[in-house]
Write a structure and sequence with these properties.
Elements (H helix, E strand, L loop, with lengths): L10 H26 L4 H11 L5 E3 H7 L4 H13 L3 E5 L7 E5 L1 H21 L6 H18 L16
Antiparallel strand pairs: 1-3, 2-3
Helix pairs in contact: 1-5, 3-4
């Protein structure tokens, strides 16, 4: 068995460290802006996922796969957001064990209030730091890594929209 590398200058440490530092820095800048709109980062993520999904809805299991939440975690967040009127739960007509999270008009309004400031921060601290070529390469690389480590990240995104009864 080969010995474990103790080379602390290993570029793999640098790559993961830089990625983590960039992510932490961006999320810290976003958090203050979300708080101004009475949203957590997770609630913002849920609203964005639902707003960008076919029919503005996702099965709860797909929503868990697309977010940083477990199945029970997504249930707790959706229940809280349901009480706040930002999303609602709907039964799945084809599978009684499943339910959908659906963004409400109030959820869309809250999201629309957050987006201008959020996009300004994204532009200033992420997109604006890169040339168009660097951005294209970064997006390609992030998709490749995301697809490898989180193959469920796009679960439900390609499903046809289901009309509410």
């Amino acid at each position: 068995m080969a010995p474990v590398s103790t080379n602390l200058d290993d570029p793999r440490f640098t790559a993961v460290g830089l990625f983590a530092e960039a992510y932490i820095g961006l999320t810290a800048r976003f958090a203050a802006q979300f708080e101004e709109h009475r949203l957590s980062a997770v609630e913002f993520e849920v609203l964005m996922r639902l707003a960008r999904s076919p029919g503005h809805r996702l099965r709860m299991t797909d929503l868990a796969g697309q977010t940083s939440l477990s199945t029970s975690g997504v249930t707790r967040v959706v229940d809280r957001m349901d009480r706040d009127g930002l999303v609602r739960r709907e039964a799945c007509s084809s599978d009684r064990r499943s339910s959908y999270a659906v963004i409400t008009d109030a959820g869309r309004e809250r999201l629309e209030a957050v987006l201008p400031g959020h996009l300004a921060l994204v532009q200033e601290w992420f997109i604006g730091q890169l040339t168009p070529e660097q951005l294209a390469g970064t997006l390609e690389s992030l998709r490749k890594i995301r697809d490898a480590v989180n193959p469920c990240a796009t679960a439900g995104a390609g499903e046809p929209a289901v009309e509410a009864a």
